[in-house]
Specification:
The complex is a heterodimer of chains A (218) and B (240). Chain A is mainly alpha-helical and 218 residues long. Chain A has a single domain, classed as MetI-like (MetI-like fold, Orthogonal Bundle). Helices cover 79% and strands 0% of the residues of chain A. Chain A is elongated and about 80 Å long. By secondary structure, chain B is α/β, with parallel strands linked by helices. Chain B contains 9 helices and 10 strands. In chain B, the strands form 2 sheets. Chain B has a 6-stranded mixed β-sheet with strand order 6-7-8-3-9-10, with helices on both faces. In chain B, helix 4 crosses helix 5. Classes of the chains: A mainly alpha (218), B alpha/beta (240). The complex binds adenosine-5'-triphosphate and magnesium ion (MG). The site of magnesium ion (MG) has 4 residues of chain B, from helix 1. Magnesium ion binds at residues 40-41, 161-162 of chain B.
């Protein structure tokens, strides 16, 4: 019997897998956070903008939304390399994934802002509250509650989409599992395990979402 | 005193108010009646500077409401407004609905604002609802909440825009009772209403508006029972 090139999966691989899990979590949280903050700002600007400016901004956001993420990642990382300004895979992936998230979040937040009726805003202004006070205390909290389920939905898909950042070399869950598969030739077990991990990461988010939704029902 | 002088207001090409003159003294209750689309709501919105005006002047305690230099937020604190749609803030409890503006605008502490809010809520008969969310309350209760919320800013005047029209008939009474109470306490009010009997009962004067013009204004009983203008007669014969 010849010496096998492959070594089976063992407990020693736990640390490696865990790195992948944490890296997936890490880049997802960064993208959800930055994407939400930027998306809130862009969504707000869109909700108060004139049609013409909105058309222009909408076109830009449509590009981000419709060009497959994997192409954006490869294009961007190649481009920053070509102009002699290479970024590490994490930074590169975070930038693109955050922008991609922002494009979706901006629509979520825009819908949130627009869900608050003029008469609600007028009621607030008539109490002597200023424009920004009305945004801060009335429009934002009511709007955010309305679109919270969609926010959870976008966040969940960001966790899954983060797997694509593997193509530019970021060592997240999918890439670690890919390397393990090459070494062990046990794709079934490993992919099942990885699938389970994505579920374990995502489930609390959707559970938390449903819990908050019930709590905030208005 | 609120003084409206030669007020013109249009939305684009649509002339809505065509020269309104109206003076409301401190302590007076003036009701505004008239058909749908005659410009009654718009008049209140102009007084509150929520809508811009094209011509004329509105003075509130001598302050020009539409002067660029006037602090509109300060002005609106003087002019409490209650709407047909009560617009309770759905994400806040009843108590928080009332304390928000006093805290944020007047800088009251939470304790101060809550003590005051409880007083006003008790006053409008919502003493047992502090921690309730408004969406679980009836329209009448929400409208009384809106009144308490407005009163908590200690306005000098109240502008009421058909505050009972969106209510189920059996809930109208409780809101009118609250307004009667305000009247008894000497609150100055401009009251747009479709409730002719109520207008006659609580108002000092009644103004009849048609197509953006005050066609008749006078003693409440006289306008309802014995209108001088034939347009008023025609309107009243339709609604009474
Ligand atoms: N924001 C606006 N933009 C354009 N037109 C408006 C606006 N607000 C009111 N109007 C128009 O101005 C006219 C007067 O409206 P207003 O709401 O003041 O009437 P109203 O007397 O209060 O009527 P109602 O008894 O039905 O409440 C109407 O023809 C209305 O369509
Ligand atoms: Mg009206």
């Amino acid at each position: 019997m010849g010496l096998s090139l492959f070594t089976p999966l063992s407990w020693n691989d736990t640390g490696f897998i865990l790195t992948g899990v944490l890296n997936t979590l890490y880049i997802s949280i960064v993208a959800i956070f930055l994407g939400s903050v930027l998306g809130m700002v862009v969504g707000f600007i869109r909700s108060i903008s004139k049609q013409s400016f909105n058309l222009f901004m909408g076109a830009f956001l449509d590009i981000l939304r419709t060009v497959p993420l994997i192409i954006q990642l490869v294009l961007f990382s190649t481009y920053v390399g070509v102009i002699g300004w290479p970024l590490n895979p994490f930074t590169c992936g975070s930038i693109i994934l955050s922008l991609y998230t922002m494009a979706f979040m901006s629509e979520v937040f825009r819908a949130g802002f627009e869900s608050v009726s003029d008469s609600m805003r007028i009621a607030s202004r008539s109490l002597g509250m200023g424009y920004w006070q009305t945004i801060r205390y009335i429009v934002l909290p009511i709007g955010m509650r309305t679109v919270f389920p969609s926010w959870i939905g976008v966040s969940l898909s960001v966790v899954k989409d983060s797997a694509l950042v593997s193509v530019i070399g970021y060592m997240e869950l999918l890439r670690t599992s890919d390397q393990l598969i090459t070494r062990t030739q046990q794709p079934l077990e490993i992919l099942l395990g990885v699938g389970l991990f994505y579920f374990i990461i995502s489930y609390p988010l959707s559970f938390f979402g449903r819990h908050m939704e019930r709590k905030m029902a208005i | 005193m609120i003084q409206v002088q030669g007020l013109h207001k249009s939305f684009g090409n649509l002339k809505v108010l065509k020269g309104i003159d109206l003076e409301v003294q401190k302590g007076e209750v003036v009701s505004v009646i008239g058909g749908s689309g005659s410009g009654k709501s718009t008049l209140l919105y102009c007084i509150n500077a929520i809508e811009k005006i094209q011509k004329g002047k509105i003075l509130v305690d001598g302050i020009d409401a539409h002067d660029k230099k006037t602090d509109k937020n300060k002005l609106r604190q003087k002019l409490g407004m209650v709407f047909q749609q009560w617009n309770s803030f759905p994400h806040l409890t009843v108590l928080e609905n009332v304390t928000l503006a006093p805290r944020v605008v007047l800088g009251q502490t939470t304790k101060q604002a809550e003590d005051l809010a409880k007083q006003y809520l008790d006053h409008v008969g919502l003493g047992d609802k502090y921690d309730e969310y408004p969406t679980r309350m009836s329209g009448g209760q929400q409208q009384r909440l809106a009144i308490a919320r407005t009163l908590a800013m200690k306005p000098s005047y109240m502008l009421l825009d058909e505050v009972t029209s969106a209510l189920d008939p059996e809930l109208v009474g409780e809101v009118l009772d609250t307004l009667r109470l305000l009247r008894k306490e000497g609150m100055t009010m401009i009251c747009v209403t479709h409730e002719m009997a109520f207008a006659k009962e609580v108002s000092d004067r009644i103004a009849f508006v048609e197509k953006g013009i005050i066609e008749e204004i006078g003693d409440a009983h006289q306008v309802i029972e014995n209108p001088a203008n034939e347009k008023t007669q025609r309107f009243l014969s339709k609604v009474l």
